[in-house]
Write a structure and sequence with these properties.
With 268 residues, the chain is α/β, with parallel strands linked by helices. It has helices at residues 2-33, 35-40, 81-97, 109-118, 135-139, 143-149, 170-174, 176-180, 192-199, 213-229, 242-248, 257-264; strands at residues 51-53, 60-62, 70-75, 101-106, 152-153, 161-162, 164-166, 187-189, 232-236, 252-254. The two termini are 17 Å apart.
Length: 268
């Protein structure tokens, strides 16, 4: 089980790396003949209009409706380190410029559905090619066993690919219920570090942002959403708070293991 999980993680890293290489190549190619080169020559290029479903479920946002404003479109991803470092700057700019600048964040449940489909074989309703090559031989299992185990749990009760979702910005929290209702998500966490970038000013050294009312409200919403979706909630724990966390409904703790096992009579 652990080997297949590791394979899924390594595959995800490789996929991200390949996409980044493709993106860089595409940008370089476009720079030669399209928008970037036109801009450097002083030409004004008309943007392609698009519309996006609002995360609060209140209709859609159309780019053309923001005409007359400076528009910043940010495609957010949890694995993107620059995205994390720029988050507090976006928040500060939003507070400074108000309605003069429109900040549009792209973070949708449709992306989750596409990601889960990419991990499932086409024969099981996904988009992953059914050809598996020498993978079963590499993992020391039969082809039948590999096809059964290399699938998403709990969609496949015998699958060993467990998917977790980190809701770590105000866009994701606003859409927590819809995100966690996507079939194939096994657990979720709220990501307090990155959440603080979006909800609060830049923290002072030693400051505990998790006790702020806005942070507590975000955590409570994600916790409730996991309970409503009947999936697990992950939270950092320690020996002092693990029992309280378990009573609250935390099902996956990162810490406080011995105390937690003793409280729940779990087998080591």
């Amino acid at each position: 089980m652990s080997r297949l999980k590791l394979a899924g993680q390594l595959g995800s890293v490789a996929l991200v790396g390949a996409l980044l290489v493709l993106l860089v190549w595409k940008v370089v190619q476009n720079d030669r003949t399209n928008v970037a080169s036109s801009f450097t020559k002083g030409h004004v290029t008309k943007p392609v209009d698009f519309d996006l479903t609002r995360l609060n479920g209140n209709g859609k946002l159309q780019l053309s409706s923001l005409k007359g404003k400076v528009v910043v479109v940010n495609f957010w991803a949890s694995w993107c380190e620059p995205c994390k470092s720029e988050a507090p700057r976006f928040q500060q700019a939003f507070k400074r410029y108000g309605n003069r600048v429109a900040f549009v964040g792209v973070d949708t449940a449709e992306e989750l559905q596409q990601g889960i489909a990419a991990m499932r074989f086409k024969s099981k309703g996904g988009t992953r090619p059914d050809a598996i090559g020498d993978a079963p031989k590499y993992w020391g299992v039969s082809e039948k066993e590999y096809r059964e185990k290399a699938d998403v749990w709990p969609l496949n009760p015998n699958g060993e690919l467990v998917l977790g979702l980190k809701l770590e910005d105000h866009f994701a929290v606003a859409n927590a219920e819809a995100n966690l209702e996507v079939p194939g998500i096994a657990f979720a966490e709220w990501g307090p570090g990155d959440m603080g970038f979006w909800l609060l000013p830049i923290p002072q050294p030693g400051q505990d942002q998790t006790i702020h009312p806005d942070m507590r409200a975000a955590r409570s919403r994600v916790l409730k959403a996991t309970k409503d979706a009947k999936i697990f909630f992950l939270n950092s724990c320690n020996d002092k708070n693990v029992v309280e966390m378990i009573k609250e409904g935390v099902m996956i703790c990162t810490g406080g293991y011995e105390v937690g096992r003793k409280f729940t009579n779990a087998i080591k």
